[in-house]
Write a structure and sequence with these properties.
The structure is a single chain. The protein is an all-alpha fold. The protein has a single domain, classed as Orthogonal Bundle (Ribonucleotide Reductase, subunit A). Helix content is 72%, strand content 0%. The protein contains 14 helices and no strands. The protein binds fe (ii) ion (FE2) (2 copies). The site of one fe (ii) ion (FE2) has 4 residues, from helix 8.
């Protein structure tokens, strides 16, 4: 009967290749070239927001109440540019982790070809975010120096579920914001196009990241799971807390000290983050990655 018995690992491997094949088919049907899809030529209309105002770090504070409409719009434009710039920072980390993961793997496999397709997507996204941030009139926003160095270590060393779960967290957090912004008529049309492209293409990346995380954790012992749950939570903490750069307030003409203090105490924003990330937290819980030390960091980042 041996010939009719399929071993579980063989089944798993072919299921993985099926996922990759479906992702490749989907990418062939619907992918975008931001160089031609986005309206880069029409000058920025300052009557638009850069992001849905409800997503502003100051929305709901007393400072927000004192801002003029023009100041609010300038602030959300700087905030959107900062989120895009942090997106570039993380996409560069992610491309290197996926590339290292695929090093010397079987190039004829759908998984290999999907991984390279994802890297190509991210490369186009980063150029798109860079042009978008420049068009929003923003300077280069980068995470704090210490976080840049932590990211340098992470992208060089992280592998397996630590790499793919961190990728998933970054993609999901960006996704929940961009889903709102792409539908919002108060947001500049070119920003909505950028968000739409990103949401469509990232839904495939998130599927792959979820799949890889589950697969890598299958044979992880308790010690490895504990350790990587902790690493993923710390990576998530720095990704989420680096989204909005502290310089956005001065660049929007606001008082940085007051803005930072009110943003840090902004319960509306914390609640929005928590409710938007509930699906992600459910996934991490099902993967048993919400260990007690990990939860401490997710709570500090207001993801749960
Ligand atoms: Fe991306
Ligand atoms: Fe992605």
């Amino acid at each position: 009967m041996a010939s009719s018995t399929v071993r579980p690992e063989t089944q798993d491997r072919s299921a993985e290749q099926d996922v990759a094949r479906r992702l490749l088919d989907s990418a062939a049907k619907l992918s975008y070239d931001p160089a031609t899809e986005v309206d880069w030529d029409t000058p920025l209309d300052k009557d638009f927001h850069g992001a849905s105002p409800e997503w502003s770090t100051l929305y709901g504070t007393s400072y927000w109440g004192e801002l003029t409409d023009a100041q609010r719009k300038e602030l959300t434009r700087q905030e959107a540019a900062s989120v895009a710039s942090t997106g570039i920072w993380f996409e560069m980390i992610l491309q290197q982790m996926v590339l290292r993961d695929m090093y010397a793997k079987d190039p004829t496999s759908p998984r290999f070809q999907w991984a390279l397709t994802e890297i190509a997507d991210e490369c186009r996204h980063s150029i798109m975010f860079a042009r978008g941030a420049a068009k929003l009139g923003a300077p280069a926003y980068r995470p704090r120096r210490a976080v840049v160095e932590l990211g340098r270590a992470f992208k060089t060393l992280a592998f397996g579920e630590a790499a793919y779960a961190a990728i998933l967290v970054a993609e999901e957090v960006l996704d929940v914001m961009q889903r709102d912004w792409m539908r919002d008529e108060r947001v500049a049309p070119f920003v909505r196009t950028i968000n739409n492209i990103h949401v469509v293409e990232e839904s495939r990346h998130m599927k792959f990241a979820r799949d890889e995380t589950r697969k890598r954790l299958r044979d992880a012992g308790p010690l490895r799971r504990q350790l990587n749950a902790f690493v993923i939570a710390i990576a998530s903490y720095y990704i989420v807390t680096s989204m909005v750069n502290r310089n956005v307030y001065a660049n929007a003409g606001l008082d940085t000290a007051r803005a930072l203090a009110e943003a840090r105490a902004n319960e509306h924003h914390k609640a929005l983050m928590r409710s938007s990330c509930s699906g992600l937290m459910d996934f991490l819980a099902s993967a048993r990655l919400l260990t007690r030390p990990a939860l401490f960091f997710y709570k500090r980042a207001h993801l749960i």
